[in-house]
Every structure is written in C-alpha cells, then in structure tokens.
C-alpha cells in the first residue's frame, strides 16, 4: 500500500507540474489561424487579421508564426507611425523566408506590415497587443477596425509543449498506468 500511495502522489505531482508548465509555456500562434492569411485581401467583405488579433490573447513568450509565399511577400515589424502610414523605409526588422517566427518578448503593441510595394496600402497589415503579466481577464484590444482583410478561420492557434515540459508530460503518461496497477 505504501508503494501505491507513493505512485499516486508522484502521479499527482507530475500532473500539477504539467498543468503549471502549460500555463507558463509560450505558445506558437499561426497568424490568422491558418497558413497563407498573410496576403493582400481579395475583398473588403473578408474578416480582417486585426479582428482575428482582437479575439486572440497574446502573452509574453508567445511566438507569432507567419506562413506565406516568400516569392511575392514579406513581413516587416514597424513603429506605430509607420504602421499607420504604411511606411516601409525604417523597419525594426524584416523577414522574407515564407516561414517567419517572431517571439513576443514584452507587453504592449506590435505592428507588422507587408514589405512589398503597395501591399500594406491595400490592407496587408497586423496589430498585435500583448497582455502584461498583471493584466486582468476583462482586457479588450484597441486595434482599429480598418480595411485590413484576410481570410481567417475561427479555429484559433496551435499550442505546443517543448523542452522540460515534454519530459514531464512523458513521465506523467508513463506513471498513469503504473498508478492504476499499484492501487
């Protein structure tokens, strides 16, 4: 009976560590919820990337992932004034790999526009607001409703477990059957 109590205690500890780790681990979030949403909008009736962004809670440590055609598009991070004017002349960072991943390392707004001529002016841009660690759950983003359109799914973002937390998850999965056998 001591062994079974020890096994159950270990199992509970593993599960608690796993839950804690999942809540602290940054997520990898596919921009728009699916591939190829980073493009010039086809019509003004499609849901905007900023609408998708308003519905998604971004936390420090999350990473945004863009999947797009690198032959005719790019992503550049800009300051607010450049976002509003679609000015590509002074980017903070630029990416043209078709599989761009950017970690959100601080709270506050992040501004992204297409680096290709005329794309931002035709609506290819994104504002993401990262919640502060102290922020309450009633937060609403202040992203402007502008004609920034892209096809979006309501499926949301993908989550992944990595590093030490995948080891904790594996240990928990191995201990669950063991705990059942010993009880």
Automatic annotation (TrEMBL):
<keyword id="KW-1003">Cell membrane</keyword>
<keyword id="KW-0472">Membrane</keyword>
<keyword id="KW-1015">Disulfide bond</keyword>
<dbReference type="InterPro" id="IPR003245">
    <property type="entry name" value="Phytocyanin_dom"/>
</dbReference>
<dbReference type="InterPro" id="IPR039391">
    <property type="entry name" value="Phytocyanin-like"/>
</dbReference>
<dbReference type="GO" id="GO:0098552">
    <property type="term" value="C:side of membrane"/>
</dbReference>
<dbReference type="Pfam" id="PF02298">
    <property type="entry name" value="Cu_bind_like"/>
</dbReference>
<keyword id="KW-0449">Lipoprotein</keyword>
<keyword id="KW-0336">GPI-anchor</keyword>
<protein>
    <submittedName>
        <fullName>Early nodulin-like protein 1</fullName>
    </submittedName>
</protein>
<dbReference type="GO" id="GO:0005886">
    <property type="term" value="C:plasma membrane"/>
</dbReference>
<feature type="signal peptide">
    <location>
        <begin position="1"/>
        <end position="26"/>
    </location>
</feature>
<keyword id="KW-0732">Signal</keyword>
<dbReference type="InterPro" id="IPR008972">
    <property type="entry name" value="Cupredoxin"/>
</dbReference>
<comment type="function">
    <text>May act as a carbohydrate transporter.</text>
</comment>
<keyword id="KW-0325">Glycoprotein</keyword>
<dbReference type="GO" id="GO:0009055">
    <property type="term" value="F:electron transfer activity"/>
</dbReference>
<comment type="similarity">
    <text>Belongs to the early nodulin-like (ENODL) family.</text>
</comment>
<feature type="domain" description="Phytocyanin">
    <location>
        <begin position="27"/>
        <end position="132"/>
    </location>
</feature>
<dbReference type="InterPro" id="IPR041846">
    <property type="entry name" value="ENL_dom"/>
</dbReference>
């Amino acid at each position: 009976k001591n062994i079974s109590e020890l096994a159950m205690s270990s199992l509970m500890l593993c599960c608690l560590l796993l839950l804690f780790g999942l809540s602290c681990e940054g997520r990898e979030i596919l921009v728009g919820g699916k591939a190829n949403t980073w493009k010039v909008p086809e019509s003004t009736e499609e849901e905007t990337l900023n609408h998708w962004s308003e519905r998604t809670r971004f936390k420090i440590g999350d990473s945004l992932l863009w999947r797009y055609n690198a032959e005719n598009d790019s992503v550049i991070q800009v300051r607010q004034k450049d976002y509003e004017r679609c000015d590509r002349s002074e980017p903070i960072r630029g990416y043209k790999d078709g599989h761009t991943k950017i970690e959100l390392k601080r709270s506050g707004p992040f501004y992204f526009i297409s680096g290709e001529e005329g794309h931002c002016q035709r609506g290819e841009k994104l504002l993401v607001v990262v919640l502060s660690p102290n922020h309450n759950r009633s937060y609403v983003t202040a992203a402007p409703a502008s004609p920034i359109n892209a096809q979006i799914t309501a499926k949301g973002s993908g989550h992944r477990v990595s590093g030490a937390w995948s080891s904790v998850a594996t240990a928990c999965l191995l201990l669950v059957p063991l705990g059942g056998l010993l009880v």
